Amino acid sequence: MFIETCIAPVNIALIKYWGKRDEELILPINDSLSVTLSTDEMCAKTTAAAASSFKRHIMWLNGEEVPFEQNPRAMRCLKEIQQLALAKEQLKFPIEWKLHIVSRNNFPTAAGLASSAAGYACLVYALAHLYGVQKEELTAIARQGSGSACRSLYGGFVRWHMGKSNDGTDSIALPVAPCEHWQDLHVLILVVNDARKKTSSTKGMQLAVETSDLIKYRAQYCVPQRTAAIVDAIKKHDFAKLAEITMRDSNQFHAIALDTYPPCVYMNDVSHAIVEFVHAFNKAVGEVKLAYTFDAGPNACLYLLERDVSIVLAAIKNSFPNDAEQSVEYVKGIPIACDIGENNGFNGNATLPINNKNLFKYIIHTRIGKGPQRLGKSESLLDSSNGLPLNN
Amino acid sequence: MFIETCIAPVNIALIKYWGKRDEELILPINDSLSVTLSTDEMCAKTTAAAASSFKRHIMWLNGEEVPFEQNPRAMRCLKEIQQLALAKEQLKFPIEWKLHIVSRNNFPTAAGLASSAAGYACLVYALAHLYGVQKEELTAIARQGSGSACRSLYGGFVRWHMGKSNDGTDSIALPVAPCEHWQDLHVLILVVNDARKKTSSTKGMQLAVETSDLIKYRAQYCVPQRTAAIVDAIKKHDFAKLAEITMRDSNQFHAIALDTYPPCVYMNDVSHAIVEFVHAFNKAVGEVKLAYTFDAGPNACLYLLERDVSIVLAAIKNSFPNDAEQSVEYVKGIPIACDIGENNGFNGNATLPINNKNLFKYIIHTRIGKGPQRLGKSESLLDSSNGLPLNN
């Protein structure tokens, strides 16, 4: 039995991917750019095993068996990896051998984070190691699993180039800067209480391309300018510029969703209260220290520098009072050195809006991080004696 | 003492006005098109009087004295009317005479309806009668009080042509079709409970012109196409087409507001629940019978045909339960012949979302209506014996 275990990170876009020019190959209508988050707080973990005794491909996701052979996107990723292996003529085991794959996300689905991006990146990365093709270009393969998965194959700042060719071979992700370039870039994810059913991203972007008059203008004119400007801001460590472009692009993505017919609404009143808070906070400190971005859901992802984490958390506590805030579980992830109950020298709280209580479920504190990693055998999710998932 | 009393209607745009190319003259960046609502349910009423004994211009609005001579927009309207009168050389009284003006809206400010449009239309119409220039082109004058006021000077469907000249003389409203053309076009205004402070329209559109990348594309490409298409739908009594264009344009206006930096958010979760309801209702009946539009606030204005009012109200009652619904005051305006508690033959309620209770304050039922009207002396808001407001 051949076994590989890997982890892959979540990524959060600063310049949003919204709209495909090819539904099957998952080719986007514009470039996008993301920050890879540290796998210490959030990651997908996948063990892939091949054995002559396996009767069919089986996948267990978060403890439950899920269709794999019937999942065209997953099968496409596998086929592409197998083709790379065949082309290299260095097969460790017969190509016909079936696979058992166990995958888990170590973050709650409730976080509304793009778990499919980390998941497909991890699947492709694990399969690439299993078939011995880990040094090949893998992002175009991960892209065919879930578009933004291609960006989770690198750490730091990553740009997904939309490409021009119809076969998608040039629609690949490339690193803009590694995480070491901007080590103190931290992230707070505000997980919002929400019940409304939302249109899926796949359906939402399809409808947007079909019905929004504004989306073409965004893709052709706005995004190229923004992408160039944010790459420049990253190179120069210009946080204020990075923050402004990030916020504008988040707003524009949601504007496009609203210009869709029927409209897609992903942010709710709490999301908008966070937006208002961030602008009020930046005004109070007289400087852009905090940026928001929202994906296809109500949860906020805030970017900030490490040195500002404590005053921002104190201001959040003031503006968004929460009965759970004394609980160790309310702020998850990287521990905060100081008591978030203190103002930490920030005296602008009086100028910030006070919201109703308990609008957030919890907060995750994390940071920019590395790309996927290969783990040792002791980390396997699969019992090598029987090829079944371990109960760990 | 010379006295004139007039009423003027509210108008609700189907194609939205958002963005000025000249802040002072109030010249818009695109055409807009509205429906004038019946003055039976909502109107502004204004009495304007001139007398040699008046020491200064005084205005009372909704029972309170408000600055008039210090209000540049109001003074500009007065000056323009006076210039028309001087040009005609038919003055009934010396141009130096001061005015007393009493104005009231018969609808609550809480309705969040554009009271300034009806108010300025009424002011200009009353002044025009006072100075004997009522037959002149008045819309370009009302426009300088409040942009959309120019559309309240006609009944039925009204188009405000943006014009091209820098002096604004061609930025005027013209009727598209009188209210008799589509007598059974009815309106339900859903007044939503809301607390959030919103950016004013004036400020919001100024920020949008300054910061939105998408607004120019909307003004130059989307609006001209939509306006032509909706004029065509009006001529043909094509309700489904009118409804779709209206909904798309409302959504696009709010998309532009969101693409503004910092973003302007006028709709709230309840507004979006209404949007969802309208699309679900149309799907359930298999036909577009209902359209929403939202101005710079959370309240919905629904367009529908008279024959559908009862099933729509029954469906609203089902989807938006309200403790006040038994009260006669919950549905104001045109009485509904049938009990809104009944389903009235509509059996699609099961497919509609059920929302939390008491999301609306009340509902106003009204219809398409006529332009401003001159009233008799018995309707005066001013005591002709002392020139002061009557307490009626």
TrEMBL record, chains A, B:
Give a single Pfam family match. MVD-like_N
> Does Transmembrane helix show up as a keyword for this record?
no
Which SUPFAM superfamilies does the UniProt record give? GHMP Kinase, C-terminal domain (SSF55060), Ribosomal protein S5 domain 2-like (SSF54211)
Task: Identify the enzyme class.
Answer: lyase
**Which UniProt keywords are listed?**
ATP-binding, Cholesterol biosynthesis, Cholesterol metabolism, Lipid biosynthesis, Lipid metabolism, Lyase, Nucleotide-binding, Steroid biosynthesis, Steroid metabolism, Sterol biosynthesis, Sterol metabolism
> Pathway, per UniProt?
Steroid biosynthesis; cholesterol biosynthesis
> Which superkingdom does the taxonomy of this entry point to?
Eukaryota
Q: What is its EC number?
A: 4.1.1.33
Diphosphomevalonate decarboxylase-like N-terminal domain location, by residue?
8-173
Enumerate the spans annotated as Mvd1 C-terminal domain: 187-374
Q: Name one GO biological process term.
A: isopentenyl diphosphate biosynthetic process, mevalonate pathway
**GO terms assigned for molecular function:** ATP binding; diphosphomevalonate decarboxylase activity
Q: Which reaction does it catalyse?
A: (R)-5-diphosphomevalonate + ATP = isopentenyl diphosphate + ADP + phosphate + CO2
Q: Which GO terms describe its cellular component?
A: cytosol
InterPro entries (UniProt xref)? GHMP_kinase_C_sf, Mev_decarb, Mev_diP_decarb, MVD-like_N, Mvd1_C, Ribosomal_Su5_D2-typ_SF, Ribsml_uS5_D2-typ_fold_subgr
PANTHER family with a match to the protein in the record: DIPHOSPHOMEVALONATE DECARBOXYLASE
UniProt function note: Catalyzes the ATP dependent decarboxylation of (R)-5-diphosphomevalonate to form isopentenyl diphosphate (IPP). Functions in the mevalonate (MVA) pathway leading to isopentenyl diphosphate (IPP), a key precursor for the biosynthesis of isoprenoids and sterol synthesis.
The UniProt similarity line reads: Belongs to the diphosphomevalonate decarboxylase family.
**Protein name per the record:** Diphosphomevalonate decarboxylase
Annotated organism of origin: Ceratitis capitata
Q: What is the lineage of its organism?
A: Eukaryota, Metazoa, Ecdysozoa, Arthropoda, Hexapoda
- Name of the gene this protein is made from: MVD1
